[in-house]
Amino acid sequence: MTTCLTRAPRATAVPEVPRAAAPAAEVRTRVVVPLRFPDGYSTTADVVTFHGLVDGKEHLLLGLGDWRGRLAALPDGGTPPLVRPHSECLTGDVFGSERCDCGPQLREAVERIADEGGFLLYLRQEGRGIGLYAKLDAYALQDAGLDTYEANLALGRGEDERDYRAAAQMLRAVGAERIRLLSNNPDKAAQLEAYGVAVDERVPTGVHLSEANHRYLAVKRDHTSHTLDLGDLGELTA
């Protein structure tokens, strides 16, 4: 007989965000890049780099669809651009790992933003900010029974070390001081608001659920209040 253990949800409060204003960043380079995904979807992005980002990392902003029209309409109260801050995930974005939902979220975000006009921010903060090797170390701990947040803590790192000051700098540098945020994560909205970007609306992404990632997604739902409807697979069982 198999015994299933259901874990009680942990606290879901979003950590308080320090409200330290970031200095202004400047556009460094803008170049047009045609994009094509493995499923055949294609579009064109205006890829932007920056001077003066507070963390010194090489983050990218991709302008998709009629982003110029969205920005031009802002002073008259127009609908803000749709924006997704997407944290780099080599395993998911490039190799199609099913341990997370990052690759499908990236693919979804590009098409939705291209349809509506806005920006994808590709942020170089792998593994919720702990780096690629540490993320894979955390995977090994998850295989031994820890969840995604417990594994980071066991490595002596924070549950989530991402900081969105650079993301706010990038948006302000292109004139996007009001946005609609494409994200299931309330912490992204809280941080961007704290750093001077008004979030008019938080738009959830789709739920990209698989047998390999359901526990990971359920922990995000229960521990950090991600907007995720997982159905029966969302229960934490062992």
UniProtKB/TrEMBL annotation:
Positions bound to GTP: R84, P85, H86, S87, E88, Q105, E126, G127, R128, T148, S183, K188
MF (Gene Ontology): GTP binding; GTP cyclohydrolase II activity; zinc ion binding
GTP cyclohydrolase II domain segment(s): 36-204
Record's catalysed reaction(s): GTP + 4 H2O = 2,5-diamino-6-hydroxy-4-(5-phosphoribosylamino)-pyrimidine + formate + 2 phosphate + 3 H(+)
Details of cofactor binding: Binds 1 zinc ion per subunit.
Broad enzyme group: hydrolase
Residues annotated for Zn(2+) binding in this entry: C89, C100, C102
Gene Ontology annotations for the cellular component aspect, listed alphabetically: cytosol
Active site positions, chain numbering: D160 (proton acceptor), R162 (nucleophile)
Enzyme nomenclature, EC number: 3.5.4.25
InterPro entries named among the record's database cross-references: GTP_cyclohydro_II, RibA, RibA-like_sf
Pathway(s) it belongs to: Cofactor biosynthesis; riboflavin biosynthesis; 5-amino-6-(D-ribitylamino)uracil from GTP: step 1/4
Cofactor: Zn(2+)
GO terms classed as biological process: riboflavin biosynthetic process
Keywords, comma-separated and alphabetical: GTP-binding, Hydrolase, Metal-binding, Nucleotide-binding, Riboflavin biosynthesis, Zinc
Domain of life: Bacteria
Entry-linked PANTHER family: 3,4-DIHYDROXY-2-BUTANONE 4-PHOSPHATE SYNTHASE, GTP CYCLOHYDROLASE II-RELATED
Family of the protein in this entry: Belongs to the GTP cyclohydrolase II family.
NCBIfam families in the cross-refs: PRK00393.1
Annotated function: Catalyzes the conversion of GTP to 2,5-diamino-6-ribosylamino-4(3H)-pyrimidinone 5'-phosphate (DARP), formate and pyrophosphate.
Protein's name according to its UniProt entry: GTP cyclohydrolase-2
Gene source species: Nocardioides aromaticivorans
Organism lineage: Bacteria, Bacillati, Actinomycetota, Actinomycetes, Propionibacteriales
